[in-house]
Specification:
The chain is of the alpha/beta class.
Length: 531
């Protein structure tokens, strides 16, 4: 195999307050034809920035301040933008992004976006471009791919949009594909399908692959070699199997320890037999717009669901997107109304509990803290809000309680006057948890609380929740598609499919010996570390 990509001594700097802040330092990479390389590291480690430099997609404030990029014996630094985008980007080097909904144009159909991408790089007719678009949609196994040509991104599911993103990246048969966290926001079964699809297409087309991820399990499955990054620097590199089996750098060892920690069985806390929550035959449906000569179609998000949650228990509700798990969480939280059935908390129907008392009983922790924290308010104000609304306390009492709660979630008083955009992802989630527990609720409903976080931060948040559960005697309902998190953190599991419970039981039993075929598929889709 001949070496076809060489990056030497690459530095990337950000312009801030008339100063250049170096964020990627002395990045070096050698990639052979048809080789697969994994780049791992936490958020802010520089793994995505280094590849955005390769594709000239860096943010406006960032620029390559040193180094060279040689691709197929051509110095890319010497190409002007016009030639680079025409000859290289999108044609010979393509990229799949983490969130297809923001990468796809919402005002253009799937067919137009594919056709435009093909015709920009190839002097061909519209008919040939359309034929190629259909071929690539079929190749990525998009269901009803001919119909999808006339549809818009919002009309597709997350997995379908990601298949379209892959089709866009591969329509010109590139020599190098860069995949930037392409499965992070997807269900575990869809994640496995996408990883297998990328692997198969790489073999078929004969291209090299650079796979960026913080998921070591996925990287171990798909990459020949690996680069580990921390704070803008490469701290370790080599054969994937060798690095993961015997990591030399403490940072790599720490990443693996966090991953193996989730494989350990969590000590089950003492659970009382008395249920704190009773959910009895709740249903929630949505009516789709009526069509000419047809009655409106009714879709059930949740259908006749019943379960109990015991005092001190962590109950996990798992299933793919659209299974109804988040709908149940919203109904229990009072964020949406149910159609039928009823819910009891401590023996009292939830409909009879006023809003203030309900806030002191049950609180939510959401998936993306950045979208749930008001960007114009300080951390102190955000965390204090539930106290100010629901309890009659003086300003000094409120501040003292906020500081005490921040300390409880591992944040010092220094964070009181900071804004959400001044915090990391893990710190923002700690603020969201502080806001949720400041009223000392008896129940927390955590909806994918760690799915957007790096493995080390994920481990810290789970430890924090375990610690708070023990200290505050909290009952937790965990909504998740991450089976490793569920295994580590939950006492019992409910598996949902199409709005119904299809299996439930002890976490260890459900994960080790699932009975339902869908549950078996769900558990078999989990990527474990391959050495």
């Amino acid at each position: 195999m001949s070496e076809f990509l060489t990056i030497q001594n690459l530095d990337i700097s950000f312009q801030s307050n008339n100063k250049n802040l170096k964020t990627v330092k002395n990045f070096n990479l050698n990639l052979n034809e048809k080789e697969s390389l994994g780049i791992v590291g936490e958020s802010g480690s520089g793994k995505t920035l280094s590849m955005l430099a390769l594709t000239r997609l860096l943010p406006k404030q960032a620029a390559v301040s040193a180094g060279s990029i040689i691709f197929q014996n051509k110095n890319l630094n010497e190409l002007n933008n016009k030639n680079f985008y025409k000859e290289i980007s999108g044609k010979k080097i393509s990229m799949i992004f983490q969130e297809p909904m923001t990468a796809l144009n919402p005002v253009h159909t799937i067919g137009k976006q594919l056709l435009d991408t093909y015709l920009y790089h190839n002097n061909e007719s519209v008919d040939k471009g359309t034929k190629r678009a259909l071929e690539i949609l079929d190749a990525v196994r998009l269901p009803k791919y001919k119909q999808r040509m006339g549809q818009y991104p919002h009309q597709l599911s997350g997995g379908q949009r990601q298949r379209v993103m892959i089709a866009l990246a591969l329509i010109n048969n590139p020599s190098l594909l860069i995949a930037d966290e392409p499965t992070t926001a997807l269900d575990v079964t869809v994640q496995k399908e996408i990883i297998q699809l990328i692997s198969e297409l790489r073999e078929t087309i004969g291209m090299a692959l650079i796979f960026i991820s913080h998921d070591l399990g996925v990287v171990s499955q798909i990459s020949d070699n690996i680069i580990v990054m921390e704070n803008g620097k490469i701290v370790e590199k080599g054969k994937t199997s060798k690095v993961l089996e015997k990591p030399a750098h403490p940072y790599t060892q720490g990443l693996l320890n966090c991953l193996f920690k989730l494989e350990d069985e969590q000590k089950i806390d003492k659970i009382e037999n008395n249920p704190i929550i009773r959910v009895k035959e709740i249903s929630k449906s949505y009516k789709l717009p009526a069509k000419i000569f047809k009655k409106p179609e009714i879709i059930y998000a949740v259908k006749q669901v019943s379960f109990d949650v015991k005092i001190g228990e962590t109950l996990a509700i798992v299933g793919e997107s659209g299974s109804g798990k988040s709908t149940i969480a919203k109904i229990i939280n009072g964020l949406i109304n149910k159609d039928e059935g009823h819910i009891e908390i401590k023996g009292q129907k939830i409909d009879n509990i006023n809003v203030s008392d309900r806030a002191k009983l049950i609180q939510p922790v959401f998936q993306d803290p950045y979208s749930t924290l008001n960007p114009v308010h300080t951390v102190g104000y955000i965390v204090s809000r539930p106290l100010m609304i629901n309890e009659n306390k003086s300003e000094i009492e409120v501040r003292n309680e906020v500081v005490k709660t921040l300390n409880l979630v591992g944040l010092s008083e220094d964070y009181y006057n900071r804004f959400p955009n001044q915090l990391s992802g893990g710190q923002r989630q700690r603020v969201a948890i502080a806001r949720a527990i400041i009223l000392k609720p008896q129940i927390l409903i955590c909806d994918e609380p760690t799915s957007a976080l790096d493995v080390t931060i994920q481990s810290q948040i789970l430890d924090l929740l375990s610690d708070l559960k023990a200290k505050l005697k909290i009952t937790i309902i965990l909504i998740s598609h991450d089976i490793s998190v569920v295994k580590y953190f939950s006492d019992r599991i409910i598996v949902m499919y199409n709005g119904e419970i299809i299996e439930s039981g002890n976490s260890k039993d459900i994960i080790s010996v699932p009975k339902n075929n869908y549950t078996k598929k769900l558990m078999s889709s989990v990527f474990s570390l391959k050495k």
